[in-house]
Amino acid sequence: KGMKEILDAIKESQTAPQERNEVYLRCPTLEHMLTAMDTRAKEGKYDSSLHFKAQVDQLTGRNDELRSELREARNEAAQAKSALEKAETKIQKLEQEIQSLR
Questions:
Q1: Contact 10, 22 (CB under 8 A)
Q2: Model pTM score
Q3: Contact of 51 with 36, CB cutoff 8 Å
Q4: Among 29, 33, 26, 75, CA closest to 50
Q5: DSSP assignment letter at 17
């Protein structure tokens, strides 16, 4: 109930006219957690550690995906840099040949 009361208080403060000392808060994660807790509490199956473990697993998976994407991006950048260096070398060589033909 404590978290539900916090969420209700936040929602009430958002509907009240704002003054300079009030802060607007958006808490979609809190709402999601409360919804999950309410649903599981009604079913009698709620275990907060399972919810957090699922979140950690999801974030770990996303972290692995991002690391893989970063590795691929670095490889592509290295290949592009190598191709650029080869092209610049070839341009310099061709410019020298042109100069020697003049």
A1: no
A2: 0.46
A3: yes
A4: 33
A5: P
Q: Give how far the C-alpha of residue 46 lies from the chain's centroid of Cα atoms, to the nearest Å.
A: 27
Distance, in Å, from the CA atom of 27 to the CA atom of 11, rounded to the nearest integer, reads 10
Per-residue pLDDT, 54: 77
58: Cα within 13 Å, side-chain hemisphere: 6
The sign one gets for the Cα dihedral 69, 75, 80, 84 is positive
Neighbours of 40 (CB within 10 A): 15
Q: Which residues contact 10 (CB under 8 A, 6 or more apart)?
A: 25, 27, 30
Q: pLDDT class for 1, splitting at 50, 70, 90?
A: low
Which token pair is 24? 């607007």
Residues 10/27, Cβ–Cβ less than 8 Å: yes
8 A C-beta contact, residue 40 and residue 46? yes
Of 31-35, 58-62, 86-90, which has the strongest mean pLDDT?
A: 86-90
Q: What is the pLDDT of residue 76?
A: 94
